[in-house]
Amino acid sequence: MTPTPSDADDPLSWAREHTPILRSFQDEYGETRPLEDYTVAFASHLEPKSGVAIETLRAAGAEVLFTPSEPQSTHGPVVKELDARDGITAFAWEGMTDEEFDAAQHDLLEREPDFILDDGCELIAKVHADHRDVAADVIGGGEQTTAGITRLEAMEDEGVLEFPVYGVNDTPMKHFFDNVHGTGESSLTNIAITTNAIISGKDVVVCGYGYCGRGIARKARGMGAQTIVTEVDPRKALQAHMDGHRVMSMAEATEVGDLFITATGNREVMRKEHFEAMQDGATLANSGHFDVEIALDDLEAMAEEVTTPKEGVTQYQMSDGRRLNLLAEGRLVNLTGPYSQGHPAEVIDTTHAMMFIAAHDMLAGDGDALTPGLYNIPDRLDRAVAERKLETLGVSIDEMTESQRAYGKEWEHPDSSF
Fold first, then answer.
1. Averaged pLDDT for residues 94-114
2. Domains of the chain
3. Residue 213 assigned ligand-binding role
4. Strand partners, 332
5. Known binder of ligand: residue 387?
6. Is 330 known to sit in a ligand binding site?
7. 323-327 and 313-317: which strand pairing?
8. Does 179 belong to an annotated binding site?
9. pTM for the full model?
10. How does pLDDT run across 243-271, given as a tens digit for each residue?
């Protein structure tokens, strides 16, 4: 059957079909429009799934200003489609330079949004550093990444946060699914597509064993890889060991690894001394939010020649003849490579649902009385999104009986009956 023009021309149509939670919010709030009269700033990787989140905010009544959280992951057709709609304004275009990306975010903040839904704490950090008058009037925010939470914790420790922020990344519906399954699958999928090289049988080194690293290591092993984990936290290292991965220092891992994937949220995880010990043909990829986990300046300084043998692959020829292959220029491999499409839509559906809930709760719900600071999303909201997800899957679960609920509140347990 020939597709209708509306289906063929709409860059959001496929993502919309696979984001049933967001569609349910559009249906529920499309008439009551609880976010009417609010302006919501939205920063994320601008691809179809984020497009559905933006149109969901608009359906609920918000005026939406959107910008990338990373300049090289922007899909031009998505930006064009959204920017043409009433009540939605783009501060983005495909092919932005880092300087244009930075300037566009400042331009957005000058529009004085009421609420900020962020990725990597890009907008929230900028509004505090450079637009203090705007920050004073922001009602609240939400943050969906590990890197962003780290920045927010630093801001809270310094006492500079001007408004309350929900740490969406730390809610179970985000880190158990998006971080583990989304990052794990999308990183390995895009590495395989970019390199057209097999993962099975390779020594795959995963740097960091948080939720993202855990997902990458687990799924790499499921593909037949010999997995190695590096860590700085002894408890996470022990967890990786008990999960069946080999645990090594980076110095040890660099001598045996074939494929290295960073997922730490920190900087210079792989640097000069590691590059010096790597085998010929080693492949390097980053799954962290910022392009600082692989020390690119060290690579460039060490290389005698830099080539691009394949789209998405930068090859550094060392003076001793070894070749090190960097994917996606050290940026997010699952989003900025030439074939990258980010996390599967079914997983991002839950994450963006939690972002929507964060805005709804602070602007139209019970979170409007929060004082400045970083907060966990209330468990009732997280559970509500989980219930919606199960409904879309057609999955049924049990409910506790009255006696079971009573048993959970009885600390003495004197007998077996209530």
1. 97
2. 5-174+344-393 (3.40.50.1480), 180-336 (3.40.50.720)
3. yes
4. 286
5. no
6. no
7. antiparallel
8. no
9. 0.88
10. 999 999 999 999 999 999 999 989 999 99
